[in-house]
Amino acid sequence: MIQCLFLLSDAGDVILEKQWMGKRVERSICSWFWRQRSEMEDQDPPSVIASPTHYLLHIVREGVTFLACTASEMPPLLGIEFLCKVASVLENYLGGLNEDILKDNFVIVYEILDEMMDSGFPSTTEPSVLKEIIAPPNLVSRVLSVVTGTSSSLNAASPLATSSQVSWRASNVKHSNNEIYFDLVEEMDAVFNRDGFVVKCEAYGEIQATSRLSGMPELSLTFANADILHDVNFHPCVRYRAWEADQMLSFIPPDGAFKLMSYRVKGLKNPPLFVRPQLSSGEGICRVNVLVGLRGDPGKPVDAIIVQLPWPPSVVSTNLSPSVGTVTYSFSTKVSTWIIGRIPKDKSPCLSGTLQLEPGINRLEEFPTFLVGFKIQGTAVSGLKVDKMDIRNVEYRPYKGFRAVTRAASYEIRT
Amino acid sequence: DIPTLLDSRYDADKAQGLKRLIALMAQGQDVSTFFPQVVKGVASQSLEVKKLVYIYLVHYADKRPDEALLSINSFQRDLSDINPLVRAWALRAMSGIKVRAVGPLVIMAANKCARDPSPYVRRCAANAVSKIHSMGDEQHFDELVQLVSILLNDNYPGVAGAAAQAFISVCPERYSLLSSSFRKLCGLLYEADEWGQISLMDILMRYIVAKYGVVRDFSSANVEFSCLQQAHEENGGDFYKADTRSSFPDERWEVRLMLSSTLSLLRSQNSAVVLQAAVIHWYFSPGNELSNIVKPLLFLLRSSLDARHVVLANILSFSKCEPSLFEAYFEDFFICSSDSQAIQTLKLDILTNIVSDFSATQILQELEAYIRNPNSQLAADAVNSIGRCALRLSSTVAICTKGLLKLVVSRSSLVVQAVSSLRAIMQKHPAEQDQVILHLLRNLNHILEPTAREVVIWMIGEQAIARPALAEGIPVALRYLAKTFADESNGTKLQVLNCLAKVSFFAADLYLTEKIIQIISSSQRCSSLKTVLLILQYILDLAACDLNYDVRDRAWILRVSKLDPGVLSKAANSMFLRQKSVPVLPSLSLQTSTFLPGSMSH
C-alpha cells in the first residue's frame, strides 16, 4: 500500500505531501532520496529504490519529482503507474505541471490526491469522473468567485458518472458542436552503424483522440493495413473481441482527450534522413566532416532538423562551421548542437572543422553517437492508414478530423 | 484570522478558512489544534464545506480520536444523505477513526453501505473493510469476512475489484469464498478498472495455486523456474504435455478460464496490469502458449518508459530460465544513448542470456560498437559480456578470442576486462590456448595495468603445466619477469612467485625423468630447465628482501618446500598444481532469480 506521496521540486524541496496511512512518514526520507540521486551524477536512479525503512518509487515530470513511499509488499508497477496517472490528471486539471502551478493550487491538488487514493490503494482515477466530483479551476470560476464571493469546487448534484453503465463516460454528456478528432502521433527510432547501414528502424505511434460527442456514441474504426502492426495496446474502452476477430476498433469513447491505442511497427526500411560522419584523427587533432541529407521521399517536408554531437571527454575544444544552419557548443556538457531547420533544395548541409584533443592523446579512441531530431507534419511514417470510421447510436452527424505527425525519438548515428 | 473565518456564520468564510488549513496541511504543517472548530463545520449544509471538513477529519482522526468521536452522530446522519458522495465521505471518516470502541458502529455503517444502490458507495465500503481490519480487532473478523464475500459477489466490476483488495488485506487464505464466484470474477475481469484488475488477478492466481499446488516452494535458495515444468509433471500427471494436447482435462477448467480471461489484459495500457497478466501466464501456461507474453512485455519497454527498469528486471529472470522465448527479439535489447546505467547493465545481461547461433554475429557486432562508446563503464561491461557470450556459445569462441586479443593491445583502459574474459574462456576451452598465450606473452611488456599482468602471469603458470609446446617461450618470459620483478606491484610479485613455483615443480619433475631416461635430444631441454631453476633462485633471493611481508613469506615457503623433498614439497605440489574449476563470469546486475517475478524484489 502506498503510504504517502511527496512532490519535490528540482532542487529537492518538498512542495506538497499527502499521507494516506495514519502513521506519518517523516520528511527525512526525501532528503535520503535526494542524496542518492545526487550521488548518481547526471543519471536517473532506478524507479524503485529500497531505503533502510521504505521502498521508494518515483517518476519525474518537468522537473517535479513524484515520490511515493511504501513499507509493504505490492507490485512495484502499480505504484509507478499510479504516479503516472496522478501526473497526467494534474496536468489535465491545471493545464501544465511545474512548481509554480502546483504552489498556486494546493487545495485542488490535495483534493484530487485524496479522491484518487483511498487508504493506500488507487480508487477513482478517471479524469472525467474526477471532474464531476472536483471542478477544475478555470478562469470563469475564478472570476465568479471574486465577483460574487462564493466559490464552489463542487457540483451540488450527485455525480452521474458514478451511476452510468461504463465507468469512463457519464450518461448525459451534451455538446453543442459534435466533433471528434484523431491525431496519429508517431516517433521514429533508428540506429545507423558506422558504415551507414541501418541496424534497426521502427516507429512507435499513439492515436490520441479528442471527443466532444453527446450521448453514448458507438464508434468503430478500421485500418487499411492493420497487419503491419507488430504490437498494440488499447484504452480500456476498446472491445478486445472485435479486434481479435476482424481487427476493428469498437469502442464508446470517454469524453474529452484520451489515448485510444498505442502501437509499434518494426522493420521499417525508410528512415527519412541520412547522416554521413567522417572522423579522422592524428597528432592531437581530429578532422570532422558530417553530411546530412534526405533519403527516400516521406511525402511531406522534413522540418526542425537538429543534430546533437556529444563529444567524448578527451575533446577539449571544437572549431566547426556549417554550410547551412548554426552550430553552438556547450563547454559544460561538451555537446555541439547543429540547428538546420529545413534542408534547402540547392545546398546539402555539411558541417566541417576540427576538434582539439587533450594533450597526450594522439588519436580518438572513443567514438561518439550523434542524435538527430526532426519533425514531419502531415504523415505517419510507418504507413498506417485509417480506412473508415463509423458512428452509431446517435442522431447527429459529427465532424471527424484526422491528423498525423511524425517526430524523431531515438535516431542515433554511430561513428 | 483562520479561527475567525472558521467561526463565521457564512459558508464562504468557512470554506476559505478550511482551504487555508488544507493548504497548510499539504505543506506538512501540523494544524490539528483547530480540530474542535473544524469539527463544528461538519453539520454545515454546504457541500463544499462538508467536503473540506471531511478531508481534514480523515487526516487527523487518529490523532484526536476522542474529539472525532463527538461528531459520530453527524457522521451517522450523513450516512443517509441523498448524495452518494456524502455517504461515501461519512463512511471514510468513520473508518478512519481507529478507536476500538466504535468498531461495531463502523461495521454497521459498512454493512449498510455494502448494500447501497450507488456503486461508488459500495466501493468505499470495500476500502473501509481493510481499514477496519487494520485496527487489529479480532472480534469482528467474521463479520468482516461476511462483508467481503457480499462485496465480491457484486455485479459491478469496480466494486468487485475493490473487494478483491479487501480480500487480500483481511483474509487472504479464505479460498472457499472464491470457489463459488470464480467464474463470475473471471468474467468481470475485463470490465473492471485497472487497479481492480490487478487485485483480482492476484487473488485468482493465489486461489489456483492453493487449489492445485503447482508452484514449487520458493523459499529454497536454489530453485530455478525451469524446474517448474518438472514440478508440474510430478504433481499433475499429464498437465503439461504441451506438444500432445491442446485442451486441459476437465478438472483444470479453472486454470484454463483464468488464462483465457487474462489473455486480453496483456493488451492493456497499464503496465502493471500487463506484467501481472504475464506473470500468471508464466506460472501456468503450457509451454507452447508461453510465447504469448513475450511481445506485450517487449512493447512495454517502449510504451511505458518509467516502467522500463522493473520490466527489464523481470525479463532477466524469465530469460534465465527460458532463453528461447526471447531469442528472436534480441533487437529490442540494443542499448540507446539515453539509457541509464542500471538499464544498460540489465540489457547487456539479457543479451548474453539469449545469445544463440542465429543471433550471435549481430549481437557481437553490437557489443563491438559499444566498446567504441565514450562511456567507459559501458565499454567495460560490453567486454565482460563478450566473455560471457563465448562461455555460453562454443561456436563464438574463435571470434571472441580474436576480438579480445586485439583489445588487449589497442585499448589500455579495457585490458583488465579483456584479459579476465580470456582467462575464463581458456579454462573452459583448453584447445584454443596456444595461440592466445603466445600472443599475450609477446605483448606482456605492453600490458601495464597490474591486475591484467597478474592474470596473464597466472595463465602462463597454469598452461606451463599442461602444454609443453610452450616450453621454449617460458624461459624467455621468465627472464623478462626477473628483470622487471623489482618494479612490479605487490599483487603481481605474488603471482610471479606462484607461476615460478608451478613451472619449477613441473620442470623439476621433468628434469628428474629426463635424467633417468637420458634422451639426447633433451639436452636442449635440460639447459632450459637449468635456466628456469636459476631464475627461480634469483627471484627467490630478490623476493626475500622485498618490502612487503606477503611476498617475503611466500618466497620463504617456496624456498623451504624446495629444499625439503618430503611432506612439504608434496603439499606445495598439491597447492600449486591442482586442477582449477572453470570460473563463472558473474552477471553484471543483481541476482534475483530466486524471488518471484512481479514482486517488489525485481
UniProtKB/TrEMBL annotation, chain A:
Q: Which residues form the MHD domain?
A: 177-414
Location within or outside the cell: Endomembrane system
Question: What top-level branch of life does the organism fall under?
Answer: Eukaryota
- One GO biological process term: intracellular protein transport
In terms of InterPro entries, this protein maps to: Adaptor_comp_med_subunit, AP2_Mu_C_sf, Clathrin_mu, Clathrin_mu_CS, Longin-like_dom_sf, MHD
Q: Name the keywords, alphabetized.
A: Membrane, Protein transport, Transport
Listed PANTHER family: AP COMPLEX SUBUNIT MU
The family assignment reads: Belongs to the adaptor complexes medium subunit family.
What name does this protein carry? MHD domain-containing protein
Q: Which organism is it from?
A: Selaginella moellendorffii (Spikemoss)
Automatic annotation (TrEMBL), chain B:
Keywords in alphabetical order: Membrane, Protein transport, Transport
The terms describing its cellular component in GO are: endomembrane system; membrane coat
One annotated GO molecular function is: clathrin binding
Where in or outside the cell it occurs: the entry states: Endomembrane system
Output the superkingdom of the source species.
Eukaryota
- InterPro entries in alphabetical order: AP_beta (IPR026739), AP_complex_bsu_1_2_4 (IPR016342), ARM-like (IPR011989), ARM-type_fold (IPR016024), Clathrin/coatomer_adapt-like_N (IPR002553)
Pfam families with a match to the protein in the record: Adaptin_N (PF01602)
Domain Clathrin/coatomer adaptor adaptin-like N-terminal stretches: 4-558
GO BP, sorted A to Z: intracellular protein transport; vesicle-mediated transport
- Name the PANTHER family on file: ADAPTOR COMPLEX SUBUNIT BETA FAMILY MEMBER
Q: What family is reported? A: Belongs to the adaptor complexes large subunit family.
- This protein's name: Clathrin/coatomer adaptor adaptin-like N-terminal domain-containing protein
Question: Which organism does this record belong to?
Answer: Selaginella moellendorffii
What does the record give as the organism's lineage? Eukaryota, Viridiplantae, Streptophyta, Embryophyta, Tracheophyta
